[in-house]
Amino acid sequence: MNKFQLVLDVGGVLATDLDLFWEELVNQAGLPYDKIRAIYKTEIREKLWQGEISERDFWQWLSYTFPKINLEYLQIVMQKSLVELEGIQHVDKWSTVSDIHILSNHRSEWLQPVIDRLHPFLTSITVSADVGVAKPNPGIYNICNDQLDPDRQIVFVDNKKENLSPAVELGWQTIHADPSNEWIGKVDHLIFR
Fold this sequence. Notes:
Elements: E1 4-8, H1 19-29, H2 33-43, H3 45-49, H4 55-65, H5 71-81, H6 91-94, E2 98-104, H7 108-118, E3 122-127, H8 128-131, H9 138-145, E4 153-158, H10 165-169, E5 173-176, H11 182-192
Parallel strand pairs: 1-2, 1-4, 2-3, 4-5
Helix pairs in contact: 1-5
């Protein structure tokens, strides 16, 4: 039995966020990034990440909201937007001493390439669109927590500081995934000491 349970976010931890997609949308729509993100956040973000709408609904909304876009090309860009980060290279090694769990605000359809790559090392996967609740809502942490062994140390890694507090409330140890990847050394130090 592994000593640790390592709970990892995907976006900003194991793979990039969807920045390439957003950059391409900005280019095609001819609107400022902040304006596009504000429209997205107001109209559809919560429904998308909490699984209240389908991926198809998202693409239809995008096409309706930004009629100048090339939807087919944006769908291709979306598939290429999740680029592996350095952290993903360590999951195999970490899995020798830790159970590996995924806790991510995402769509399973978009995460699938990452999940497929990591599947041999994963104990559980909790994706917001599949469970109907997103971080930092405590509900998604509780869903993940139900899959963990309360008698073993839990370490949660996320790139957004606001997502760490609910984990602390559950008694999980947290590590902020900083852009300079110092977090990887912190995980190594903790689980291999």
